Amino acid sequence: MTKYLPEGRFFNSPENRYYLRSRENLAEAMAGGLTLEGHAVMCTAEHDLVVELPFGKGLIPREEGALGIADGTTRDIALLSRVNKTVCFKVTDIIDSDEGVTAILSRRAAQQECKDNYINGLRCGDVIPAKVTHLEPFGAFVDIGCGIPSLIPIDAISVSRIAHPNDRFFNGQDIYAAVKNIECGRICLTHKELLGTWSQNASLFSAGETVGGVIRSVEPYGIFIELAPNLAGLAEPKDGIRAGQAASVYIKALIPDKMKVKLIIVDVFENLCFPSKINYFINSGRLERWEYSTKESGKTMVSVF
Fold first, then answer.
1. Contacts of 261 (CB under 8 A, 6+ apart)
2. Are the C-beta atoms of 205 and 211 separated by less than 8 Å?
3. For residues 239 and 277, is the Cβ–Cβ distance under 8 A?
4. Cα–Cα distance between 245 and 271 in angstroms, integer?
5. Selection from 24, 140, 131 nearest residue 88 by Cα
6. What is the dihedral of CA 260, 264, 268, 271, to 10 degrees?
7. How far apart are CA 178 and CA 111, in angstroms?
8. Within 10 A of 2 (CB to CB), how many other CB atoms are there?
9. CA quadruple 66, 67, 71, 76: dihedral, nearest 10
10. Element (H or E) spanning 108, and its range?
11. What residues does the S1 motif domain cover (predicted)?
12. pLDDT of residue 1
């Protein structure tokens, strides 16, 4: 299953470099039906993708650019957006001419194989690798294999609420996600279950420590400050603070039976940090049931797959 990875994961591998080295090696890959990766340098006026090759050029005709282009279920923006990025493909022909070598390529064929042999076999709860490709206010679009897209809704990104997916992710980021549901062949993902329970996250902190956080919400009764993607604490109200700012906070208490973290704000300043590296508690296998809440709390926050 790990054979079919998001685009870009295979590009720098020794195997990929070998097959792109010469016309003869590329012909070997074509004979073996292998999927390779290259750098798309242009989308022509006809919406054909041009791929850079060391010994010539590759051409992905428009209808071979992605699943759904031929029948109109995928828009041409899916092709334009691949320019200056890695694309996967199978080699369907190699043409020699006075102008040099032109390899005819099919990204659609690579995606169809990925769909048949990998995507169609996924089940709810499967934990899979993904790559962030596009961020919208409602969620993050990700590549789950050979450029095939899926969506992580914003409320499934983390337990700690965020204003926009770019608070957590950036384009091109390699992440993990879990299959939440499958409807009419479309796969929807979730992410928060991989980021740990309340207890797992709280164990990373101790009362008396001063740590960094991000202001996520300012309410009349207090200020919610994220310490980790799945853990937030509450500080007393304070003037001049707004969501999105960074803070240094003193941890006054961690209370498992109420799933609360009491904080005291030490300082607040503008948040100029790039989204931090994600600490995964789960990055493989299959989930059947995940419970965020503590046994002492009496609350139930559960995801069932």
1. 202, 205, 227, 231, 232, 233, 234, 251, 253, 254, 255
2. yes
3. no
4. 5
5. 131
6. -30
7. 20
8. 10
9. -30
10. helix 107-117
11. 125-192, 208-234
12. 35
The pLDDT assigned to 2 comes to: 47
Domains and CATH numbers, the chain: 14-116 (2.40.50.140), 119-195 (2.40.50.140), 198-269 (2.40.50.140)
**Token pair 């700690």: residue:** 160
Q: What is the pLDDT of residues 262-300, one digit of tens each?
A: 999 999 999 877 777 899 999 999 999 999 999 998 888
- Residues listed for the chain: 305
Q: Which of 24-33, 180-189, 226-235 has the lowest mean pLDDT?
A: 180-189
Task: Note the pLDDT of residue 187.
Answer: 95
Measure Cα distances from 125 to 63, 78, 110, 175, 195 in Å. 33, 28, 25, 16, 14
Residue 197 has pLDDT above 80, yes or no: yes
CA-based angle 273:278:279, to the nearest 5? 130
